[in-house]
Amino acid sequence: MEYQEAANLILQAKNMYALTGAGISTESGIPDFRSDTGYYKEFDGATALSRDVLLGDPDRFYHEGFVMLKDLFAKKPNAGHKALKKLEDLGYLKGVITQNIDNLHTLAGSKKVFEVHGHTRTVHCMSCHKTYPFQDYVDLVTVEEEIPPRCPACQGVLRPDVVMFGDMMPQDFQDAYEAMETCDLLLVAGSSLVVAPVSYLPGMAKKLIIINKEATPYDYKADVVIHEGIGQALTKILSLVEEGASR
Questions:
Q1: Total-model pTM
Q2: Residue span of the structural domain in which 103 resides
């Protein structure tokens, strides 16, 4: 019943966006950040991935935060990412707002992706701002054992292009906020909706679908709530959308 209701909302929407969190990527082998089996069980992500630790305690950053970032590399998109890409191809989804830094929406082929917490494709020099591939950065740390890794051009400190605790939000967040001003349906997939300021975005949508294994603070106001695996749920909804569009 909930799947058909979700498909009907998608078929009727004019400006639908998706908001994704760590839950969509667990099926790609990436542990989430907040469950008992997530990264926060091993590290305190609020400090391990903070600007203060990156700059003030690089040894800790490269033994904790860096490990979390490096583990995202070489993962593959799953059925959830592919279903959202297909919804975009069909013209129903205008874009994906993601809290994830794992690049999986881009790898799946989604064209309009707002990476509101950054990504792990590149790093940049904090002095000269030159950009390098993330793999070059990994090699400096793991092969050259350079902590902190330095810019080959000017010897400034390199840092990942991810939004850390203590950083300003990037332009992608402002762009996502502006997109939400015209959003008539937001499909939330795999987000706990507790991390600000992204957690404010669902309140801007006229209608709301939430797919998440655990309850969220927005369940009470959502039009449809599905507590199930993201890949399975999105695949079912996509099938019903395609069936409805063919009638």
A1: 0.93
A2: 1-29+77-117+169-247
Q: Is 128 annotated as a binding residue?
A: yes
Question: Residue 22 falls within a domain, yes or no?
Answer: yes
Does the annotation flag 154 for ligand binding?
yes
For residues 120-138, one letter each, b for 16 or more C-beta atoms within 10 angstroms of the residue's C-beta and e for the rest, the string is bbebbbeeeeeebebeebb
Say if residue 125 carries a ligand binding annotation.
Answer: yes
pLDDT in tens, 47-87: 788 999 999 999 999 999 999 899 888 899 999 999 999 99
- Please indicate if the annotation marks 151 as binding a ligand: yes
Quick count: other Cβ atoms within 10 Å of Cβ 196?
7
Q: Is 117 a catalytic residue?
A: yes
Domain count, the chain: 1
Q: How many CB atoms lie within 10 A of CB 8?
A: 15
In a domain, 242, yes or no: yes
Residue 106 within any structural domain of the chain: yes
Q: What is the pLDDT of residues 108-133, one digit of tens each?
A: 999 999 999 999 999 999 999 999 99
Residue 144 maps to a domain: no
Gap between the Cα atoms of 69 and 58, Å rounded: 14
User: CB neighbours (10 Å) of residue 76?
Assistant: 10
Single out the catalytic residue among 81, 105, 117, 119.
117
CATH of residue 24: 3.40.50.1220
